[in-house]
Amino acid sequence: MLTAPCPSLLAPNHNVIPFFGPLCYKKNILAFCFRTVTPRPWDKIELSKEPVEWARQSWRAVPPHGEFEPMKEWKEKVRKSKGNELDILRTIMRDGVRLYIGSACGEPQHLVRSLIKLLPRHRDIEIVQNLSLGSLPEDWKPLQENARLKTFYVGPRVRNAVNEGLADYIPIYYSSLPRLFKEDPLWKFDIALVQVSPPDEHGYCSMGISVGMDKCAVECASIVVAQINREMPRTLGDSFLHSSRIHYSVEHDEPLPEIIFRERSAVAERIAKYISPLIEDGSTIQTGVGRIPSWVLIYLEGKKDLGIHTVVLTDAHLHLIKSGAVTGLKKTLNQGKIVASFCMGSKQLYDFVDNNPEVEIYPTEYVHNRNLIRQQHRMVAINSALEIDLTGQICAESMGHTVYSGIGGYVDFMQAASSAKEGKTIIVLPSTTSDGRKSRIVSHLTNGAGVVSPRSTVGYVATEFGVAYLHGKTIRERALALIGIAHPRFREQLMTEAKDIHYVYEDQIAPPIFEPLYPGQWETRQVFPPNDELYIRPVRPTDERTLQEFFYTLPFEDIYFRFLSAMKAFPHRNIQAMCNLDYEHEMSVIAVTGEMGSEKIAGIARYILDQKSNLAEIDVAVGSDWQHKGIGTFLVHYISEIARTKGISGLMAYVLAANRAMLALFHSLGYAVHSKLEEGVYEVWLRFDEPAPSCRVSEYK
Fold first, then answer.
1. Chain centre distance of CA 451
2. Which of 163, 166, 379, 513 is the most buried (most CB within 10 A)?
3. Which residues of 538-548 are buried (b: 16+ CB within 10 A; e: fewer)?
């Protein structure tokens, strides 16, 4: 007879779930006990069902297959299932089987080496793996008559085989794989080879650093063979596999593969430096794998309360965690927890995740669930690209027809982050190929290249030459922004191609094609009364529309003072000349408010160098809503400092006699001021080698 669970034990604590386990089932007698578990967000438990039926449906709360085995029985079963790996594989292998192998650094290398020895005896074996980093051979020619590899991600070990037609690449979202495995009869696995930690006292092994799609493959496989390795960390989360689900096991201890990006890269560091200001405290981060994403993480060590919800946990994440920047306390889901699908790094990383309650490793269907990802407040997805066209289409898996990597979780996180509250999507890539011969920013993608991410989801794009914001921008604005961060050698060519396909104005000025480039060293932040923080930076070509809007908001009197004429229009041909600078003979700095893409200009200071006199003509303007806060004074002092450091001898300006404020600004700079009045206009100049005894601020008052 079944006794219903006590209601007081079920409420109000939803984490207490009746567990009908393998503790005391014998013949027709069923007893049950309670244990505390953490329900997965996708579990839907209907308490109205009969207890036994409900327990069978909640597969996480019972051993696999819905069977209730006494502890002695499953221990005896595990003992009998152990054996020699070659004998086991000889027993279960047959021609034409589909076989899944655990992926990445969790690959069961000992089992794979044994499998390779037996493959020449068989025909038409289909091997499926996500990412090969272990013992599978790079050269598939000797085995092409015996086995065919299918992979969801083309890593370095199988890249040649795939592109030589000896192995197959399957382009697919990671979030689609669980459904593919479970529902498509053509993907039924006959055998799954995985690697696990030793079982605990309850019979549960951890799948350790490779849970992802491995766990789903195990659940769908007819026969599961596990390499029990004491080097495999016991990770927490939803990583456990009960021993009764393992049909055969082999005990073999060996070090796990290690993947570490040790080489420094000036390009990667420059990109990381540009990206860091975009990521706010309290953001939840997802990054792809590679040198650039790793450096981005390292540059975030000064942030606060960051969270991690990512596909791959790496040593760069470990560095960030140890810096104290990661707490996870601001995450919407899994607060205080580091969530990943698998780990790929050094032994130091593997030791860190071992039995660590802070780290939770989940299957693909959780980590890549877009509905869950988009719930994270300030979700930031940072991913690499191989090529991007001027409209924002991203190619990240191939170089033309040559497959280089895979889709992976790219689209899952890009789409989810783009729809998350205050979410951001960031694409990082070097401006050129490794040999410097080809631009990675192109007018059209290389023939054969696959579009991994559509232009509708990309937010920010960063190269070593800056950041372009594309979201909500027109094709023309996108083209200009991307040309501005392309390598200088290719900018003129890109501009010509953009004009040919009518992406930009026919008279559009190309960005400078020589060094020095955008002077990011002059970016700073300044607080003005009462407590307004403005971002001070050199003007960019993409500021054309923003600067145009700024001038249209100026009162008529300010326009007259600044331009010495009653200008009523600020057309493209005039404004673009103010934004496309060489930063040597011309310089403009602006004070802006708001984030990139939604910035508003509060003030601008600008100079143009007269090379004969080596004096720079200067002017300044401040929006009416921002006047009397000291912004104009700061900008004039700041741009005069820039001019002085560039070897310019001094400043000069033509100032209306009625413009007392500008005249006073000149005297506030601390240099001897010279002037002459002609027809109501002062010609004012100063030299940096003539300091004034004191600042005569009130001379023109």
1. 18
2. 379
3. bbbbbbbebbb
Q: Residue 96: what are its φ and ψ, rounded to 5°? A: 85, 5
* Cβ proximity of 467 and 596 under 8 Å: yes
**DSSP-derived secondary structure for 112-124:** HHHHHHHGGG-SS
Structure tokens at 78: 């595990």
Closest CA to 112 of 95, 91, 128: 128
- List the one residue out of 453, 440, 428, 434 whose CA is nearest residue 494: 440
Helix 291-298 vs helix 315-322: angle between axes, to the nearest 10 degrees? 0
DSSP symbols for 554-604: S-HHHHHHHHSS------HHHHHHHHS--SSSEEEEEEEES-TTS-EEEEE
| 466-490 pLDDT per residue, tens | 899 999 899 999 999 999 899 988 9
Element (H, E) at 415: helix 410-419
Neighbour count for residue 167 (Cβ, 10 Å) = 24
**604-653: pLDDT as tens digits:** 999 999 988 999 998 888 888 898 899 999 999 999 999 999 999 999 88
Instruction: Enumerate residues 6+ apart whose C-beta is below 8 A from 206.
Output: 196, 197, 232, 233, 234, 235, 236, 239, 240, 241
Burial of 567-596, coded b for 16+ CB within 10 Å and e otherwise, reads eeebeeeebbebbbbebeebbbbbbbeeeb
pLDDT at position 689 over 70 = yes
CA angle 368, 338, 428 (to 5 degrees): 60
Listed as own residue / partner, the contacts of 33-40 with beta carbons closer than 8 Å and 24 or more positions apart are 34/5, 34/9, 37/61, 39/14, 39/15, 40/238, 40/366
Q: What tokens were used for 611?
A: 């090379």
Give the C-alpha distances (Å, rounded to integers) separating 130 from 146, 213, 402.
Answer: 20, 8, 18
Confidence band for 336, pLDDT divided at 50, 70 and 90: very high
Residue 90's H or E segment, with its range, is helix 85-92
- How far apart, in whole angstroms, are the C-alpha atoms of residue 106 and residue 102? 6
DSSP string, 281-328: TT-EEEE-SSHHHHHHHHTTTT-SSBEEB-SEE-HHHHHHHHTT-B--
Contact 232, 194 (CB under 8 A): no
CB contact at 8 A, 463 and 429: yes
Written as one letter, the residue type at 574 is N
Is the bond into 516 cis (omega within 30 degrees of 0)? Answer: yes
Sign of CA dihedral 543, 546, 552, 556: negative
- In terms of Cα–Cα distance, which of 493, 533, 528 is closest to 511? 493
> Quick check: 423 and 379 in contact, CB under 8 A?
yes
